[in-house]
Please model this.
Amino acid sequence: MQSLGVLRVLGVLLVMFSTTLLPPILIALISKDGGLQPFLVAYVTTLFVGGALWVPLRHQRRELRVRDGFLIVVLFWTVLALFGALPLLLSADLEISITDALFESMSGLTTTGATVLTGLDALPASILYYRQQLQWLGGMGIIVLAVAVMPMLGVGGMQLYRAETPGPMKDNKLTPRITETAKALWYIYLGLTVTCALAYWAAGMTFFDAVSHAFSTVAIGGFSTHDASLGFFNSSAIALIAVCFMLISAVNFALHFTVVRGRSPGAYLRDPEVRAFAGFVLVVILITVTLLVAWGVYSGAGETLVHGIFHVVSIGTTTGFTTTGFHWWPSFLPVMLIIMSAVGGCAGSTAGGMKMIRLVLLYKQGRREINQLIHPSAIFSVKLGNKPVPDHVINAVWGFFALYILSYVGLSLAMAATGTDLVTAFSAVTACLNNLGPGLGAVAQNYAGLESQAKWILTITMLLGRLEIFTLLVLLTPAFWRS
Model:
């Protein structure tokens, strides 16, 4: 374990994160909303601690190993959430506890979108912007952003990239150098954000709301500057714009890069994961709209279609935006949508959940096992896009699925042990483990009413879901700490 190298990288990343506190400071100065002091204190504190870690170790040049990358990712997300909570904790407009501040910060960085805050419409612009920016930074993972500049500091980045990038296919580089890979991903991410903001602005949002919601849309986060979420705007155009960008952001960013570089949109149609994801979303939309029409939930066909499509895409991609809410919908619809979030988007996207490619591989492996029972002597292979999938990838998918189920059950029981009712406990764990946000029962609107113990459990759950379980649990094994 390269302890000094880990501390050095952590210091660099904290210094980088401190610069993200400058935009809220500028907004507080311009708007004179009274939020200047908390951000200044947080900026100085984060910069000082980061500098104190980095300066004494700045001449360390030893290459990091994969094991170091896992530790840095977990440490950074944990430490970053702590420092990210400072402005919220120090704000006189919020007056929240350490537990609530950390919960909100972790929710933002993991793009979960679960909130303990109420009265958003009356909060200072600097606080509102800061929450949205947290999600934007966490969307692709600030580690990947840091990797783009790590070579200049003498730190290899591929280890961090493999530890941070979600999904089972982690070893492929988009370009020969990891630096170029990270830059390519972020250019696409930034381009989508700007385009989304302009679309929202053209549809009637204020410039501030447009930028803020573009941050959380492309990050698939779900935070809003209004208590009513996107329902505040009461606009079908805004809802449909959100649908488009949520779907785009739920697709593998490596595939976006391939399409942009090769100028071949047909690559989307050839990708088996995208086809499966599109088919899955379409089926759920058909079921949802049919039931909404049958029950007469909305007055007209157009309104039914917009709300049905919007909420299926929002929940299915683990964004968590709402217009009228879905928890009060009839029959099994609320439960179906919550369960749908467990699938999430595509691997390599900003979505949460298990990822569609894992579901596809589990299905294909299940079919292979059935065929093997019928024809014991035959040899069957699992293929994606006519290419065989190595057995070690299949085993990793099964291992992930097993850990996901065990984590889900254990965390749900822990939530129930805090006195939370079963509907709230299971839906809250589902929403946080899948980085979704809104749940059912007492957490349909927000998480403010939960006990402190429950919030700590869910804070860990959000981190576990964002790092896709393995990255965090590997640190708990004795073998990880052996030299």
Summary: Residues 3-177 form one domain.
